[in-house]
Structures are given as C-alpha cells and as structure tokens.
Design goal:
- Strand 2 and strand 3 form a beta hairpin.
- Helices cover 28% and strands 20% of the residues.
- It is of the alpha+beta class and 198 residues long.
- The strands form 2 sheets. It has a 4-stranded antiparallel sheet with strand order 1-2-3-4, with helices on one face. It has a 4-stranded mixed sheet with strand order 5-7-8-6.
- Helix 1 runs antiparallel to helix 2 (48-68).
Length: 198
C-alpha cells in the first residue's frame, strides 16, 4: 500500500463524491460551554468579574476546539487522481478496500464489542452514532479494516462502492471479516497503525 501521509494543502478532495465533517452536536457544544463556566466558578471567591471573564473565555475555547477538531470524512480524488477514502488525517486508496457496510447505532455498538480487532483503524466521535466498516484487502497492510463514523452511513457506503470498493475476494488475506473491527469507543482522536495514518 502506498505510504499515506498527512494531506498537504490543496490535496483535500474538493471534488469529492461524498464529503462530511463530523461536527459536534448542539448538546456537546452546550456541554462545553457549561464546563467552561464551571471552570470560571472556581474563581468566584477571588472576583465575580474574573469568574465571568474566565468562564466565558473557557467556554468559547472549549467549543471552538470541539468544532475545529472535527474530522472530515470524504471519498474523492487522492494524490494520484484515483478515488481515496479520507478520514481525518488518514487516507487510503479505495482500490484497496472491500465490502463497505453501513452501521446504525446498534450495529456500531456490536462492532465495538467483544471479539473486535484492536488493529482496525477507527475515526469515530461520540456524537456520531453511526459508521461504515470497510475491509482493507492489501495483504501488506497490517490493518484489517477501517471503521469510519458518519451521520450518513448509507451514502458513504454507496460512494465507496461507486468509487470502486470491491466485493470480498477469496485469498485477500482476511479470513475473519466479522471480527475485524475496533475495540475502543472512539472518543479520542483517530487511531490505527503507522501504515494507515498520516
């Protein structure tokens, strides 16, 4: 598999057939604002004005960090012009992917449950309750698959199939597709092996 790197400026798939930013929900933004003001309350004994200022600044900073750190998920042209899947800073040619499956909230929970494979690359956020699981069919890649969060999993699945994600073929080196997934809940940043991350 070509060595994926962090996308440079101008290589982001502007002409993507599918593009979605996993922005936090309103509930998470309100929660960040509340946490910010709670931090400000720790200064109440020193100065009510300082409490308001620090609380407001902390609330804004937390909300902006959540918003700005939201990864982009896309299917579009990569550095070689061929279709690639982008998930945050990671990317992979669609030609190396197979059998994308849209997962609703219940299926995603099952995918993250016992028997999951910790080698699976996951780009998930707690405020996105659905995802697409896709297998990696490159025998040189130690990562068995990708688990990518999406609020429109059926559209992402269709985009991957339209871009050339192939059905599972015998001898692709992946013997147990039902258990090749993540064992973590994706609350933090994307994870995966060095072979699949920028």
């Amino acid at each position: 598999m070509p060595e994926p790197t962090a996308p440079a400026r101008g290589t982001d798939p502007v002409a993507a057939t599918f593009r979605e930013r996993l922005r936090p929900s309103a509930a998470y933004l309100v929660g960040a604002v509340c946490v910010g003001f709670m931090l400000g309350l720790t200064l109440w004994l020193f100065s009510p004005v300082l409490t308001l200022v620090v609380g407001a600044v902390a609330a804004v900073v937390l909300a902006v960090v959540l918003w700005a750190a939201s990864p982009v998920v896309a299917v579009g042209p990569g550095p070689d012009g061929a279709p690639w899947l982008w998930a945050g800073r990671a990317r992979i040619p669609v030609a190396l992917l197979a059998a994308p499956r849209a997962l609703d909230a219940a299926a995603l929970r099952a995918e993250l449950g016992p028997g999951s494979d910790a080698r699976t690359f996951a780009c998930l956020r707690p405020w996105v309750r659905a995802a697409v699981h896709v297998r990696v069919v490159d025998p040189e890649d130690p990562t068995p698959g990708w688990l990518v969060g999406s609020r429109r999993p059926a559209e992402l699945e269709a985009a991957l199939l339209a871009a050339g994600a192939r059905p599972v073929q015998q001898g692709d080196g992946r013997e147990n597709p039902d258990h090749e997934n993540s064992d973590e809940h994706g609350a933090g940043p994307e994870r995966g092996t060095a072979a699949t991350r920028g």
